[in-house]
TrEMBL record:
Keywords of this entry: Membrane, Signal, Transmembrane, Transmembrane helix
Lineage: Bacteria, Thermotogati, Deinococcota, Deinococci, Thermales
Transmembrane helix found in the keyword field: yes
Top-level division of the source organism's lineage: Bacteria
Organism whose genome encodes this protein: Thermus aquaticus
Transmembrane segment boundaries: 116-139, 160-183, 218-240, 247-267, 273-292, 304-324
Signal peptide: 1-16
Keyword Oxidoreductase: no
Protein's UniProt name: Stage II sporulation protein M
Amino acid sequence: MRLLAFLGLFLSLALAAPEEVAREAVARWLKGELSPRLEEVLKAPPEEAPKLLERYALFPPPPKGLSVNLEGAKVEGSRVAFAAALGEEVGEVVVVLEGERVRRVFFRPEGLGLPAYLLTPLAGWGFVLLSLFWTLLLFQTSPFRAWLLEALALVRAHKGLYLFTNLFLYGLFALGALLAYGMPELARAMQVLFAGALEAIGLEKALGQGLPVLAGVIFYWNFSQGLFLTGLLPALLLGVPVLLLNALRYFVFGLALSPALLGGAFLLHLPTLLLELQAYILVTFGGLLLLAKTARGEGYGKGLRALLLSFYLGAYFLLLAAWYEAWEVGLL
């Protein structure tokens, strides 16, 4: 029945104006006509689960108590936004259109999007200067160079642990990529989940702002959410949480970014994957070093320094990855 209602939406709104298409989609979304329930996804048979998961990613259920002002539509290209509130939290409900077809509906709280200053030319030039000065200081006598050399020495001194971390995490990525050939619908659903998360934060707003702005936004997001929030912080808990978190992350990344889905574009994207995933491997390596040094009685402080050095080296890998990925996006 839900699938029929979903198809009926597209047919009934085929010739309507974007605002009307979006308004009707939001009304149906609020009624629960477009979104599968999480229980449906979890209990679905294997052959139906990928499609339900993809729909769940495209049309996440509206939060309870969400109120939407359907009168004041704001149209920006293929996106139509309506002011919304969830209690005291304000935001917007965004409808993404493909022509006259509704592709996605979601609620974006005000604090979830990218900071507006990151999308300015000044921020782009600031990231250019940061990149140049950081790179220059690596070749000069400076704390930046000293930290780099100490981090590299740390990797050489613990080659076994570093090699294990690389083989384990890259291996899980490769496993996910191979499984995508046998489960393309599930892999595609994972890809939609990732794309939806990036769309929810408003990453598309950076696409037309030039290479430096896009690179800065990519670095900001990967550093704050990937390396710091889900990397350094769990690594502080003696390494095991970040290893488990990244094990899941790399396997799902492998599914979503497999050559089975990307085709020839995979080779173009490969440097981004190697650089970006290496950054998360380094912070995982640092967390395991923290565990090892603490367990051997060397002290949490020494282990923490090893973790911070690995984090520093990982941050520079993310900087390189951001510039390449921004160039890659512009090329595509």
